[in-house]
């Protein structure tokens, strides 16, 4: 309000001096631009308190959702590939080799370490 009280006497003084129209238009345009800047700054400040931390527009939200779905689909495909390994590709260790290397004993030994 303080600036409004300053603008009114300034406008009266300008009109009393009878300035040319061109100079009056320049002052009027400058005043309107300053007023709009002040209003827009006030609106931005008020609206910023209600917005979330990160501004999202509709296209960005759709793109993020599409990427998330693609990642989930890819992950499901990987899990299915791991779960459905053919029997021909599975590696089996013969019992004689297990006994020679002690592979079947290592798991039991690990379980018995606390009992020693």
TrEMBL record:
Q: Where are the transmembrane segments?
A: 24-43
What are the leading ranks of the lineage? Eukaryota, Metazoa, Chordata, Craniata, Vertebrata
InterPro entries reported in the protein's UniProt record:
G0S2
**Short name of one Pfam family:** G0-G1_switch_2
Q: Where is this region: Disordered?
A: 94-116
Q: Has keyword Transmembrane helix?
A: yes
Q: Which organism is it from?
A: Hucho hucho
Q: Which UniProt keywords apply?
A: Membrane, Transmembrane, Transmembrane helix
Domain of life, source organism: Eukaryota
- Statement: the UniProt record of this protein carries the keyword Nucleotide-binding: no
Name the UniProt record assigns to this protein = G0/G1 switch 2
């Amino acid at each position: 309000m303080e600036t409004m009280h300053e603008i009114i006497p300034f406008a009266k003084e300008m009109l009393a001096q009878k300035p040319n129209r061109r100079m009056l238009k320049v002052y009027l345009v400058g005043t309107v631009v300053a007023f709009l800047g002040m209003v827009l700054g006030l609106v931005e400040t008020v609206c910023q308190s209600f917005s979330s931390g990160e501004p999202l527009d509709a296209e960005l939200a759709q793109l993020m959702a599409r990427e998330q779905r693609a990642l989930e689909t890819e992950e499901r495909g990987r899990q299915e590939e791991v779960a459905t390994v053919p029997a021909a590709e599975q590696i089996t260790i013969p019992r004689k080799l297990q006994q020679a290397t002690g592979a079947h004993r290592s798991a039991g030994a690990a379980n018995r370490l606390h009992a020693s």
